[in-house]
Amino acid sequence: MNYFVIMCGGVGSRFWPFSRNERPKQFLDFLGTGRSLLQMTIDRIRPLADPERIFLVTNEAYVDQIREHLPEIPADNILAEPARRNTAPCICWAANHIAALDPEATMVILPADHLIIREEEFRRTVSEGIDFVNADGGLLTIGIKPTGPNTGYGYIQFGDAVEGWPGVMRVTAFTEKPNLELAKSFVESGEFLWNAGMFIWRTADILDAFRTYAPETAALFGQGTGKYATADETDFVNEIYPQAESISVDYAIMEKADNVFVKSADIGWSDLGTWNALYETAPKDRDANVIIKSRVLTEGCRGSVFAVEGDRIVVASGLENYIVAQTDRALLICPLEKEQEIRSVVNSVASRFGDKYI
Amino acid sequence: MNYFVIMCGGVGSRFWPFSRNERPKQFLDFLGTGRSLLQMTIDRIRPLADPERIFLVTNEAYVDQIREHLPEIPADNILAEPARRNTAPCICWAANHIAALDPEATMVILPADHLIIREEEFRRTVSEGIDFVNADGGLLTIGIKPTGPNTGYGYIQFGDAVEGWPGVMRVTAFTEKPNLELAKSFVESGEFLWNAGMFIWRTADILDAFRTYAPETAALFGQGTGKYATADETDFVNEIYPQAESISVDYAIMEKADNVFVKSADIGWSDLGTWNALYETAPKDRDANVIIKSRVLTEGCRGSVFAVEGDRIVVASGLENYIVAQTDRALLICPLEKEQEIRSVVNSVASRFGDKYI
């Protein structure tokens, strides 16, 4: 059977003040659609999976919000991490949990806070990916056809196509976020895809890979054999999870394994990881401004994002390439090109005004 | 006896969104002192007058707010205009009302929404002005020594000094707001003062002047003789007030009369008529920003005004010479140099979002 694992423990602090520790990005109705990014993620896969086969791995601080956003998902399907340890421990736990339920399981790992415009194409990609790993095994990642030399994403270099599986190629290398020059050469070469953090594999194959390439993590979670999907699981995980190495699945497994494949996808994807990414994705007015859920009157503004919560109206003049974002706790006015600095601003805010604002 | 008349019927729409129709500037605690501009105006004159001799002329829409701000002023001392008709009808009514109470009265007319830093000096100026008009008659205006070539104020040209009354001169001309070149030559000449809209005269003298220079206004209000300061006054005024010509006392009387004097004053005055005026007046941080009642973290901001109501914190980057003003209804982000356009913006806001926002 096929299982979906949604990773939704992140904070998305670059979207401050919209996102903050107690209300991360995945819980926001970012695009004003009436559904949070998490809800949109679940809506998108529901044609492929019943709620019983959708699992959420999150920080325990967010369990209540998840149940509120997703009342249809069984409470037992929420795996609450007692500590933040990046994606490798998160996936290792989910694989062990699902293997205990179904040793023949195939897993699809998805982030909770990305945007996908072409949902039908996305589902077709996932279905074909499931067929591929069920037939041939291997660790499959979904790679996004680049629409430009974006320096905010990691890139996947691909090699030979796999015969009989359209769009599936062997992976040559994973790369870090490149500088602009490198990103341009990646895109021009036609040999690179964006790493979207979406994975498909048989549970048995990923557990094998952990044993080979991340043996300590495998051994740590292996101590729980017999406890997963039982009443003993929570206590066990709460005890061992903090000891797990904090490392991404890309570093721990994907960059090392020799059976890694990528399926190319053109699905209107954005990780919405930055205000710039949101700006690129969202519809624009005639002055190239993006207005999200806000009542805004602009005069001489260009290329700016306005995301102002609440009933308040906004009058803005002369802003070029700015972010104007406001919640009930904070107002941010910042050039889009300086958004990398938002993380450090958030730290200053915390030390000056207190944690409730971040 | 001396009577003080505070004109407080204006809207101050250039301070939108802080000021709006239902909450004009005079009712705002603009500088974060804990007292509204109106309260500060009354506080300033209280050493010179008991509450019984302080009158407020306002639009009837603001009567409740005035009573709330000034519980010590007798309710009968609030003269509620049924229509907006500029300062000449307002002053003519007040003069008739006070003449009915005390035919020997001397009146001091003051705006409700100006800032005066040197209050002792202000009170000394007013006291000496009262002495002057009580001794010699005439229409006295208080003129402010210019601190620079401000183009936002009207100017008063003075001529001969009046012997025996330090700082009192004959007025040669009233001028409109000048352009910058003209303003510079005014200031350099040393013959001009700023028109602060503050007047001192015997009630009998201003009523004489109305009869001579604004006979229609005088006649209209003259119909009420015998009704002022009685139970019949309100009905009478409500009936005739809308018929009054809408004109300032400067145009109607001061520019025409031949017994007009000015007393020069150096009292740390600003009409707070614009965000720029407020900026000039208020204390600044090390980056020359003015932070009013707001918790603001700035990075690379200079010469900007931040006035953000409520608990919300503000993080701003890269703003130079901007206004950032927010209330529970609206957020304004606008270059200080464009503040003249705020009035037209307010009109657009009204037509697009409704009157409750202006």
Give the biggest beta sheet of chain A. 5 strands, mixed, barrel
Q: What is the structural class of chain A?
A: alpha/beta
Helix content of chain A: 25-40%
Q: Name the strands of the widest sheet of chain A in spatial order.
A: 6-9-7-8-10
H/E element order of chain A: EHEHEHEEHEEEHEHHHHEEHEEEEEEH
User: What fraction of residues of chain A sit in β-strands?
Assistant: 25-35%
Q: Which residues of chain A form runs of ≥5 with pLDDT under 50? A: none
Biggest interface goes to: A-B, 32 and 32 residues
Total strands of chain A: the figure is 17
- The radius of gyration of chain A is 21 Å
- Mean pLDDT reading of chain A: 92
Distance between the termini of chain A: 41 Å
How many alpha or pi helices of chain A?
11
Shape call of chain A: globular
Described by its quaternary structure, the protein is homodimer
Give a verbal description of the structure.
The structure is a homodimer of 358-residue chains. In chain A, 31% of the residues lie in helices and 26% in strands. Chain A has 358 residues and is of the alpha/beta class. In chain A, the strands form 4 sheets. A 5-stranded mixed barrel of chain A has the order 6-9-7-8-10. In chain A, α3 (87-101) packs across α6, α3 (87-101) crosses α7 and α6 (203-213) packs across α7. Chain A starts with a strand and ends in a 5-residue tail after the last helix. The mean pLDDT of chain A is 92. The A-B interface holds A 17, 295, 297, 299, 308, 311-319, 324, 326, 328-335, 338, 341, 345, 348-349, 352-353, 357 and B 17, 295, 297, 299, 308, 311-319, 324, 326, 328-335, 338, 341, 345, 348-349, 352-353, 357.
